[in-house]
């Protein structure tokens, strides 16, 4: 039955676009508020040398959970310092604490409301079901559009993903308060607020704290996902390790996350009934802790105000908050950009890690509002067709010269599938060809449809690729690619050509490190997205003896810092 597709995605896109414009002021306020709170928490956690916070957390864990866990806390945190992940751990703890604070401030009142109003519960419950089952990555998409790239959308996504247990457990805890106690409170003439604060909440506290504990754990589980939109911390270190196939770094960063998870879990589990409450009353201990935190925060804010450096408010740095919007951690382009920052002495600038999609979303938002923005760019890319952009001149050559994109296959492919090998070897096209496919995909066409459209329009060029190639008879061919717009376009096109010549093609999206490793170990047959001799040189040098380089399939690529034409700078040196 041929039924027209309901344009649900288009409706959602239109609604989000309207929200982005209509509520821009509100989103800006939330961004500034959350960013300010995060800075305060980070400053409190970063006060003094690492040993200060390590001893404070150790004492807190000993007080709440007894001395054996305190020793574990001391040793694990010292190990994190030794491994070099202390700063990342501070950023991760700050993100988790702020996400947890938001779940408490918003989740507990909603849970109370649900317990008191059945209608509210019936409305909120399916919303919570939706929030808990929707993939966490989906929350990042509108978060980028509403709050921009950086740590704020990561916190918002973590908060949405983690708030459900707090709401559910608060509702459950209040509903499970024995009816006879409620009747007794009513008999003594208690008001609704007295009954809530003196009967229901005290009795429901263990259940509520269990919900808070689970929310904090869920927020911590989001640190890697949040790194896709620029959230710093251990999540970005894990993501970088995955991209670079660095097992050691991945294990170290992952172990640091495990240590932090155990510490936060034990503290939140035992806050209500500390192990040594008979030695120091909880009210006294937590009051002292609160005063220390508050005092440190106030001193930190005052110190920040005193050390603020007055810079040119009209300069490009001030207008962009000294931020360059980048792509995935560990990408070759990010390494080149870090090199450029060092070469040009741009110490005040920060390279924001995220993803290619997040970078483009940030560019689109800035371009629509004619705001200045600096991004890490490469060509060919459809954004040069959709936006009026320019590269900043690189007089020091930090980004290298023009590159080529190579086709690389596994050893043995020529013997196993000679026709596929020949097609991949003869595959070659121009940047304009690639950009036309990318534009169609960006305009909403499925990648496979865009590939078919280009192939039909360029039959002569495709025949050159297949000339003399033996047709396949259903042999499986697995191609791997990075989720860059360039590689999506090229991989789908060559994959469709192989398919039309009798091969059963599978396309697998991976990170750049697994892309090279997959071809090298034979779990993938080939790729057509190796940028050489600069962007992917480290990966190429690692695996070059285990793969077959078929040479360039496209010439004339370029990397660098990119700005819209309306931005009044022309060189990287203008960023000083």
UniProtKB/TrEMBL annotation:
In the C-terminal section; belongs to the OsmX family. Belongs to the binding-protein-dependent transport system permease family. CysTW subfamily. It comes from the Bacteria. Pfam families: BPD_transp_1 (PF00528), OpuAC (PF04069). It is found in: Cell membrane. CDD domains: PBP2_OpuAC_like (cd13639), TM_PBP2 (cd06261). The chain crosses the membrane at residues 12-34, 40-62, 69-86, 92-115, 136-164, 216-235, 247-264, 284-303. Its main location: membrane. It is a multi-pass membrane protein. PROSITE patterns: ABC_TM1. This is ABC-type proline/glycine betaine transport system permease subunit. GO terms for cellular component: ATP-binding cassette (ABC) transporter complex. Gene3D superfamilies: Dipeptide-binding Protein, Domain 3 (3.10.105.10), Glycine betaine-binding periplasmic protein, domain 2 (3.40.190.100), MetI-like (1.10.3720.10). Residues 89-268 form the ABC transmembrane type-1 domain. It comes from Mesobacillus foraminis. GO terms for biological process: amino acid transport; choline transport; glycine betaine transport. InterPro entries: ABC_Gly_betaine_transp_sub-bd, MetI-like, MetI-like_sf. GO terms for molecular function: amine transmembrane transporter activity; carnitine transmembrane transporter activity. SUPFAM superfamilies: MetI-like (SSF161098), Periplasmic binding protein-like II (SSF53850). Keywords: Amino-acid transport, Cell membrane, Membrane, Transmembrane, Transmembrane helix, Transport.
């Amino acid at each position: 039955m041929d039924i027209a597709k309901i344009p649900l995605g288009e409706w959602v896109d239109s609604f989000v676009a309207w929200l982005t414009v209509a509520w821009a002021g509100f989103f800006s306020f939330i961004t500034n508020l959350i960013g300010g709170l995060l800075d305060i928490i980070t400053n409190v956690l970063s006060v003094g040398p690492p040993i200060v916070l390590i001893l404070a957390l150790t004492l807190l864990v000993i007080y709440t959970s007894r001395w054996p866990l305190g020793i574990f806390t001391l040793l694990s945190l010292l190990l994190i310092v030794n491994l070099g992940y202390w700063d990342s751990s501070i950023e991760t703890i700050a993100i988790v604490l702020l996400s947890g604070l938001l779940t408490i401030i918003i989740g507990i009142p909603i849970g109370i409301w649900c317990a008191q109003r059945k209608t509210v519960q019936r409305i909120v419950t399916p919303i919570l079901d939706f929030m808990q089952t929707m993939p966490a990555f989906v929350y990042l998409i509108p978060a980028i559009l509403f709050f921009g790239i950086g740590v704020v959308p990561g916190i918002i996504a973590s908060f949405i993903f983690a708030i459900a247990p707090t709401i559910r457990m608060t509702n459950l805890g209040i509903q499970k308060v024995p009816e006879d106690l409620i009747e007794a409170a009513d008999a003594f003439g208690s008001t609704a607020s007295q009954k809530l604060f003196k009967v229901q909440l005290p009795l429901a506290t263990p259940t509520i704290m269990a919900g808070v504990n689970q929310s904090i754990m869920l927020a911590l589980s989001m640190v890697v996902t949040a790194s896709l939109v620029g959230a710093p911390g251990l999540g970005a270190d894990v993501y970088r390790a995955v991209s670079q196939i660095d097992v050691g770094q991945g294990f170290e960063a992952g172990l640091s996350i495990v240590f932090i998870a155990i510490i936060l879990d034990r503290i939140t589990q035992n806050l209500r009934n500390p192990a040594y409450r008979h030695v120091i009353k909880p009210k006294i201990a937590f009051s002292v802790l609160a005063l220390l935190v508050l005092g440190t925060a106030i001193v930190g804010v005052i110190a920040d105000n005193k050390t603020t450096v007055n810079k040119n408010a009209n300069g490009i740095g001030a207008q962009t908050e000294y931020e360059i919007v980048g792509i995935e951690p560990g990408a070759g382009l990010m390494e080149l950009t870090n090199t450029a920052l060092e070469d040009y002495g741009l110490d005040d600038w920060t390279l924001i890690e995220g993803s290619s999609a997040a970078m483009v979303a940030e560019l689109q938002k800035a371009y629509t509002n004619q705001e200045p923005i600096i991004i890490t760019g490469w060509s060919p890319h459809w954004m040069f067709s959709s936006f009026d952009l320019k590269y900043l001149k690189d007089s020091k050559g930090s980004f290298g010269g023009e590159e080529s994109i190579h086709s690389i296959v596994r050893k043995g492919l020529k013997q196993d599938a000679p026709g596929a090998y020949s097609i991949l070897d003869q595959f070659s096209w121009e940047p304009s060809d690639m950009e036309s496919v990318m534009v169609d995909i960006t305009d909403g066409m499925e990648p496979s449809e865009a590939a078919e459209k280009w192939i039909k329009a360029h039959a002569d060029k495709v025949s050159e690729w297949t000339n003399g190639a033996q047709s396949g008879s259903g042999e499986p061919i697995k191609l791997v690619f990075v989720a860059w717009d360039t590689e999506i376009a090229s991989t789908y096109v060559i994959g469709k050509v192989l398919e039309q010549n009798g091969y059963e093609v599978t396309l697998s999206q991976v990170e750049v490190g697994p892309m090279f490793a997959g071809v090298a170990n034979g779990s993938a047959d080939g790729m057509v997205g190796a940028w050489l001799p600069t962007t992917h040189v480290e990966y190429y040098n690692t695996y070059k003896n285990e793969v077959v380089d078929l040479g360039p399939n496209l010439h004339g690529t370029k990397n660098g810092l990119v700005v819209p034409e309306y931005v009044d700078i022309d060189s990287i040196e203008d960023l000083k």
